[in-house]
Amino acid sequence: MERFCKVGGIQDAQRLFFEMQDCGQLPNFQTYVVLLDGLFKNRQLSRAMQLFREIEAKKLDVNIVVYTVLIEDLFIAGKIESARDL
Q1: CB 60 within 8 A of CB 72
Q2: Which of 16, 43, 55, 63 lies deepest, with the highest CB count within 10 Å?
């Protein structure tokens, strides 16, 4: 999945993410973080924030790794106030 995100194949990464879930393979924390970062890097900010809310709703361990990805990518996207709020 990480490779898809890095080469601009975010749709393929998302498809793989959903196919994993459909087959009963629940994504782990690292999978969420990779997809979250990939969505930001591919300028899909609303989908990235939606995924972040999903991570929180599933009570996954939102730690420094997730916040680092969020803050860095929000700054890159020019969403400075949102990054500061985090």
Answers
A1: no
A2: 55
Give residue-wise pLDDT tens across range 26-85.
Answer: 887 888 888 888 888 888 888 988 988 888 888 887 888 888 888 988 888 888 898 888
Where b means 16+ CB within 10 Å and e means fewer, 1-26 reads beebbeeebbeebbebbeeeeeeeee
- Radius of gyration of the chain, Cα coordinates, nearest whole angstrom: 12
pTM of the entire predicted model:
0.73
Name the residue ranges covered by the structural domains of the chain: 2-85
